Amino acid sequence: MPAAQAESFIRALATANPAPETELIYHDPFTLLVAVVLSAQATDAAVNRCTPALFAAAPTPERMAALGAEGIGPYIRSIGLWQAKAKNVGALARDLVDKHGGRVPGDREALEALPGVGRKTANVVLNIAFGQNTMAVDTHIFRLGNRCGLAPGKTPRDVEDMLVRRCPPDLLRDAHHWLILHGRYVCKARAPECWRCVARAFCNYRDKVLAPPA
DNA sequence: ATCCCGAGGG
DNA sequence: CCCTCTGGAT
């Protein structure tokens, strides 16, 4: 996709929130980081349901580290992969206390060194909590990009670089967040809801799955 | 019954 | 590259 068209594509997606009911409820670095770690393979609703009690019990890295995997587990048993996540979050909080003065580091290298934190999670935290020019390319964005011919045959990392390069600076925050939601709730893997997609004009598959259910 | 999905490990 | 973890969605 040509540069000018890519910018239009990003602009279209960045100006419409497709799932206002699942809006991100955490914005400070620590709760955001933990919430994102818990989000893999779980619905936003499930994460938003169980995290308030968890953060009431452990609002800081110190308290979370003290809770440990055994103490964290009971709060998150309703979401997928909870055993691994409890372990990761406990170890992550321990690392924050021991290696980062109880603060969430604001650089990629340190974030990705934390247990359970990969490139995608680091990019979300860097963008939303630290205001940096990053884009988290998860499989939702990757699929959306592929269906729209954003960067045919390219790797997720290539797509990430392209989005960072093409996204107008004033739209960075919204583009990052709304792109994920579009892939997750509109341009879904199984039953995409093309009839309410703001990127229809760019999509190569729209004619095949455009109609709403009867 | 099968797919979803990010991180980590083989 | 492949596989596993797990509850939820379909």
From TrEMBL:
Transmembrane segments: none
Enzyme Commission designation: 4.2.99.18
Record has Metal-binding as a keyword: yes
Cofactor binding summary note: Binds 1 [4Fe-4S] cluster.
Cited SUPFAM superfamilies: DNA-glycosylase
GO molecular function, one term: DNA binding
InterPro entries referenced in this protein's UniProt entry, alphabetically: DNA_glycosylase (IPR011257), Endonuclease-III-like_CS2 (IPR004036), HhH-GPD_domain (IPR003265), HhH_base_excis_C (IPR023170), HhH_motif (IPR000445), Nth (IPR005759)
Lineage: superkingdom: Bacteria
Cofactors that this protein relies on: [4Fe-4S] cluster
Signal peptide segment: none
Catalysed reaction, written as an equation: 2'-deoxyribonucleotide-(2'-deoxyribose 5'-phosphate)-2'-deoxyribonucleotide-DNA = a 3'-end 2'-deoxyribonucleotide-(2,3-dehydro-2,3-deoxyribose 5'-phosphate)-DNA + a 5'-end 5'-phospho-2'-deoxyribonucleoside-DNA + H(+)
Top-rank EC class of the record's enzyme: lyase
Positions of the HhH-GPD domain: 38-185
Biological process (GO), any one: base-excision repair, AP site formation
Residues reported to bind [4Fe-4S] cluster: C187, C194, C197, C203
Gene3D superfamilies xrefs: Helix-hairpin-Helix base-excision DNA repair enzymes (C-terminal) (1.10.1670.10), Hypothetical protein, domain 2 (1.10.340.30)
Hydrolase among keywords: yes
Keyword terms, alphabetized: 4Fe-4S, DNA damage, DNA repair, DNA-binding, Endonuclease, Glycosidase, Hydrolase, Iron, Iron-sulfur, Lyase, Metal-binding, Nuclease
HAMAP family (alphabetical): Nth (MF_00942)
Function as written in the Swiss-Prot or TrEMBL entry: DNA repair enzyme that has both DNA N-glycosylase activity and AP-lyase activity. The DNA N-glycosylase activity releases various damaged pyrimidines from DNA by cleaving the N-glycosidic bond, leaving an AP (apurinic/apyrimidinic) site. The AP-lyase activity cleaves the phosphodiester bond 3' to the AP site by a beta-elimination, leaving a 3'-terminal unsaturated sugar and a product with a terminal 5'-phosphate.
Family: Belongs to the Nth/MutY family.
Full protein name: Endonuclease III
Organism: Neoroseomonas eburnea
Gene: nth
